[in-house]
Design a protein that fits this description.
This protein has helices at about 1-5, 10-40, 90, 140-190, 195-230, 260-280, 290-320, 325-340, 345-365, 380-405, 410-420, 425-450, 485-495, 500-540, and strands at about 50, 55-70, 75-85, 95-100, 105, 115, 125-130, 135-140, 230-235, 245, 250-255, 280, 285-290. It has three domains: about 40-135 and about 235-280, no CATH class; about 140-230; about 290-540, Orthogonal Bundle (MetI-like fold), CATH 1.10.3720.10. The protein is an alpha+beta fold. The strands form three sheets. Strands 6, 7, 8, 9, 10 and 11 form a six-stranded antiparallel beta sheet that branches. A five-stranded antiparallel beta sheet has the order 4-3-2-1-5, with no helix packed on it. A two-stranded antiparallel sheet has the order 12-13. The protein is built from 14 helices and 13 strands. β1 and β2 (about 55-70) form a beta hairpin. Helices cover about 60% and strands about 15% of the residues.
Length: about 550
């Protein structure tokens, strides 16, 4: 009976089903852990004031509570609490551990304010005074809070105008000046007629002067806006008798977490979550948003997919449909399978040497000599990173496509040829439509792997902070030579290269969760397309 039970195959069905269930549980548990640590990051928590027996004070968020480690490694009966006290420029650290037995009193003062700053992280305290230059225009919490709410929106509007002028107006002027400068270098290098070269150079210099006048006008406007913004200053009373005097414009927002009801907390939570997705990073990438990294990740995956799918499909078609089967083709297939096991950093080194230095350097020599010695394509960029990842993932597409092509019944091919179709017509109208779901499966797998790779990107174009996106309103609009940000590298940079690792932990979890969602979204989109094609094939609508 026992022997028959094993022969029936039921134990192996249960074994495979259990393994699948265990894998799903591990994946869901991992996502749940990341989500729990990430989604609470933007929730406005209460601020606690702690008074110690020795007269000291601490003001901030409670972030952890644990037994105090002992020398033997066993848990003791004494506990300690970790507070995010912020005020890094005042205290030198964002977090502080305090033993519970040293705490005399805990309270949540209504006047405690959370100041979210453009630099130096959060600041906890209360308003002592608002100043216009050196003149105090509001003093104390109530008057200071009302004056802050009146003046702060004006400072943020001016900051928006400053950013708009810097990125759009001055950015466009600098682009035109750089274009004219390169044209002047080209005229000096190519023209053999010195009279014509001198005349053209004079015209270009006159045009540069015109743009320079506009640049000076915008610079004066920027200076005026900055001076107006720096007029107002705020004096914050922090815990322990410390004070912080800073420009009002240096504050992103301020709120009273101990006075907020649930609806206000939810509105602020959604606002901060939206800013995380759509704003630029700040404070060494530990605060602000990650939109440039989202844009760079998605754009790189799309470029990689547009490259790897056609080349992978063509290679698989040749190996399966055209190549004469023999030792050489078997050797090629073995090489492709081995290529899938090569460490990704090796592809990065190859991409740096072949794409960046060889191809990019030659492109600069032929098409951008005026810009040399500053490289245009002879340095890392999103194009070279995408090509490197395409090489990394092309074995996946080739293997998946070959398997899909081999699953097409031979009778389909023979029937098509018997009806007078050519080999290419048979492949185009019979074989490829039937194999399309499998081809898309390979594309999905390559997208999933490419989106999560980091090592090859570190030496082929990804950077900590990209000043501009690879797409803008300046011709040629798509700047594939530009460096870019990537969510995977962003996680590595914030988690392991940040000068303040403890404060950067929430950003690591939120960025990780966002990267998981983006990969899932890309895969679900490809799966939906594949299922649609599969249903059309089933009902004969090709």
């Amino acid at each position: 009976m026992f022997k028959g039970f094993w022969k029936s195959g039921d134990p192996f069905i249960w074994l495979t089903g259990g393994a699948l269930a265990f894998s799903l549980i591990m994946i869901l548990s991992l996502i749940a852990i990341v989500a729990m640590n990430a989604l609470g990051f933007f929730w406005p928590r209460e601020i606690t004031l702690v008074r110690l027996h020795d007269g000291g004070e601490a003001l901030g968020h409670v972030t952890a509570h644990e037994p105090i480690p002992t020398a033997t490694g066993e848990d003791s009966l004494r506990y300690r609490t970790q507070f995010q006290v912020g005020n890094r420029d005042l205290y030198g650290a964002d977090f502080r551990w305090i033993e519970d037995e040293k705490i005399a009193e805990r309270s949540q003062p209504a006047e405690a304010i959370y100041f979210e700053r453009w630099e130096w992280g959060p600041l906890f305290g209360s308003i002592k005074a608002i100043k216009d230059g050196e003149t105090v225009i509001a003093e104390g919490f109530q008057a200071g809070w009302e004056k802050f709410r009146e003046l702060h929106p004006q400072t943020q509007e001016r900051l928006d105008r400053i950013a708009d002028i810097e990125k759009k107006a001055i950015g466009a002027i600098n682009a035109q000046i750089e274009r004219l400068r390169l044209e002047m270098k080209g005229v000096a290098r190519q023209s053999a007629d010195s009279i014509q070269a001198a005349a053209r150079t004079a015209e270009l210099e006159k045009e540069v002067q015109t743009w320079q006048v506009q640049y000076e006008e915008k610079s004066k406007e920027l200076q005026t806006l900055r001076q107006e913004n720096n007029r107002y200053r705020i004096v914050v009373q922090a815990a322990g008798g410390r004070e912080k005097d800073m420009p009002l414009a240096g504050i992103v927002r301020a709120f009273l977490p101990n006075q907020m009801h649930w609806g206000q907390r939810m509105a602020l939570y959604l606002t901060r979550l939206w800013e995380f997705i759509w704003e630029d990073p700040r404070e060494s990438n530990t605060e602000g948003g990650v939109f440039p990294a989202i844009f760079g990740t998605v754009m790189m995956v799309l470029i990689m997919s547009m490259i790897v799918v056609p080349f992978g499909v063509i290679a698989a078609l040749y190996l399966r449909e055209y190549a004469k089967q023999g030792p050489l083709v078997r050797a090629v297939r073995i090489a492709i399978n081995n290529l899938a096991g090569v460490p990704s950093i090796v592809f990065g080194v190859f991409g740096l040497g072949f794409f960046v230095y060889l191809i990019g350097g030659n492109i600069d020599q032929m098409f951008y000599p005026e810009a040399l010695p500053t490289p245009t394509y002879g340095t890392g960029g999103i194009l070279w990173a995408s090509l490197t990842l395409a090489l990394l993932t092309v074995p996946v597409v080739i293997v998946a496509t070959e398997e899909s092509l081999s699953s097409i019944p031979r009778e389909w091919r023979e029937g098509s040829l018997a009806l007078g179709a050519t080999k290419w017509e048979t492949i185009r109208k019979i074989v490829l439509p039937g194999a399309l779901p499998g081809i898309l499966t390979g594309a999905i797998l390559s997208m999933a792997r490419g989106a999560g790779e980091v090592a090859p990107l570190m030496i082929t174009g990804v950077v900590k902070l990209a000043p501009t996106l690879p797409v803008d309103l300046h011709a040629p609009f798509f700047h594939l030579e530009r460096k870019f940000m990537h969510l995977g590298f962003h996680i590595y940079d914030v988690g392991f290269q940040s000068p303040n690792v403890e404060a950067a932990k929430p950003m690591v979890f939120t960025t990780t969760l966002l990267l998981i969602f983006i990969i899932i979204a890309l895969n679900l989109t490809a799966i939906a397309v594949r299922n649609r094609l599969r249903s059309r094939l089933r009902f004969g609508t090709f």
